[in-house]
Specification:
By secondary structure, the protein is of the alpha/beta class. It is built from 18 helices and 13 strands. The strands form 2 sheets. Strands 3-2-1-4-5-6-7 form a 7-stranded parallel beta sheet, with helices on both faces.
Length: 430
């Protein structure tokens, strides 16, 4: 069987793919990973074959780009029509502020079917030549479903976060006046689907099935067909630093605020001095995986803090008693795999452009008793007390073990290979 993964060009989108890609390759299947040219080195460094797509001189930018005025006005009208109550507004806001701009990197709004799209055109050309049996695609690159349909391959999404796409489509389906064609995802995909003679329906937008990396209780409720698979943390590796050889002499706390956040979201680090003030007076060692931009507002580092630009969490977390992080799913999974209690840096009051998954991650971690929401708008003293509580109460360690058991209850990637083989045979049309 030939399997093509299609990945939006960002580390947080690549890493969740690696364990499943290797499971399929180890089972004897041919595997390729398609993404923008900027990702080829990262893909091949994982021992997998890369397919370079799109315009090398035009990298993806994701969230934060300027919206075309007409598209923003249209989205505002749709938002008013949906009239979501406050408990439901977050998924829609995350979809339109964070995820839709990533889709638009390769499916620009307002394009006609005849307009060239380098990334999509390269992808369709490759699938027609290589003839994959299955395309597993990133929710932020839905044109991969068009490429699969154009060559008769089965196709499925890999959900590395909550299914905001499927959730918003369900809200449209429930609404009396909004139709599938009105959904921004359908509007983005339709021109390229017409270009290659493919019908735009719900299956094209959410896959014939979805591989879901989130444990039970974390996922948004949707009507899409989901197949659970365990999220195995797979970072880029470096040489283990010598100072990590010896176990810490007092509790060690890690701070990791995500590669994606510092790569695609400008600013927003004003709270760093408050976190550093919070940890400075505690009898702990702190390892902060932060770069110079994230530390720019600091006059100096506290004596108990060591800052490193990058350190794989699988090297750091086995020696840690707690992790402060931004709520990213990969970072969450790393802490869960090492049974480390978590403090998620969510904002209590919603603000534009906050990190999209922090609230849902914080809610799940708190519900399982594995940590707390770290309110980064509070005082350093409040944050200090929260951290001291997580370090001092054994119940948080028990909660971290519960989350680890949640992951263990899910099929690992190798166990899932026969299921994927069977679903592929059922759905491919070639």
């Amino acid at each position: 069987m030939r399997v093509l993964f299609v990945v939006w060009p960002g580390p947080a989108h690549l890493y969740p793919v690696i364990p499943l890609a290797w499971a399929l390759q180890s089972a004897g299947h041919e595997v390729r990973i398609g993404s923008h040219h900027a990702m080829t080195a990262a893909i091949t460094s994982q021992g997998l074959s890369a397919v370079a797509l799109g315009d090398e001189a035009a990298p993806a930018t994701g969230p934060g780009k300027e919206y075309p005025e007409a598209e923003w006005e249209k989205l505002e009208r749709v938002t008013e029509t949906l009239a979501l109550d406050p408990t439901q507004s977050d998924p829609w806001e995350i979809f339109r502020h964070f995820l839709l701009p990533g889709v638009w990197d390769f499916l620009p709004p307002g394009a006609a079917p005849q307009d060239p799209r380098p990334g999509v055109d390269d992808l369709v050309a490759f699938t027609r030549q290589w003839q994959p049996d299955l395309v597993i695609w990133d929710p932020c690159w839905p044109a991969a479903a068009v490429a699969a349909a154009a060559c008769g391959a089965a196709h499925a999404r890999l959900l590395y976060c909550q299914d905001y796409f499927g959730w918003t489509l369900d809200r449209f389906a429930e609404h009396g006046t909004l139709q599938l064609d009105d959904h921004p995802l359908a509007e983005a995909v339709r021109p390229v689907a017409e270009r290659y003679g493919v019908q735009t329906d719900s299956e094209l937008l959410v896959g014939q099935w979805s591989l879901d990396l989130l444990p039970t209780g974390f996922s948004l409720p949707t009507t899409t067909r989901r197949v659970p698979v365990r999220c195995v943390f797979t970072p880029t590796q470096t040489v283990v630093p010598q100072w990590l050889y010896e176990p810490p002499q007092r509790p060690r706390v890690a701070i990791s605020l995500g590669l994606s956040q510092r790569e695609f979201i400008e600013g927003g680090w004003e709270y760093m001095p408050h976190i550093m003030e919070a940890v400075a007076d505690l009898d702990i060692d702190v390892v902060a995986t932060l770069n110079s931009v994230q530390l720019a507002d600091l006059d100096h580092l506290p004596a108990n803090v060591r800052a490193v630009d990058y350190l794989p969490l699988n090297q750091l977390l086995p020696s840690c008693s707690a992790l402060i992080h931004h709520g990213g799913i990969g970072t969450f999974a790393a802490a869960a795999n090492y049974q480390v209690p978590q403090l998620v840096t969510d904002l209590i009051a919603p603000v534009p452009m906050k990190y999209p998954v922090a609230t849902s991650t914080a809610a799940y971690v708190s519900a399982r008793g594995a940590g707390l929401t770290l309110d980064i708008e509070s005082s350093p003293d409040t944050m200090r007390k929260q951290l001291a509580l997580v370090l001092g109460e054994a119940s948080f360690q028990h909660g971290a073990k519960r989350i680890y058991e949640d992951l263990l209850a899910m099929p690992n990637p190798a166990d899932l290979v026969p299921v994927i083989e069977r679903l592929t045979a059922q759905h491919q049309t070639r």
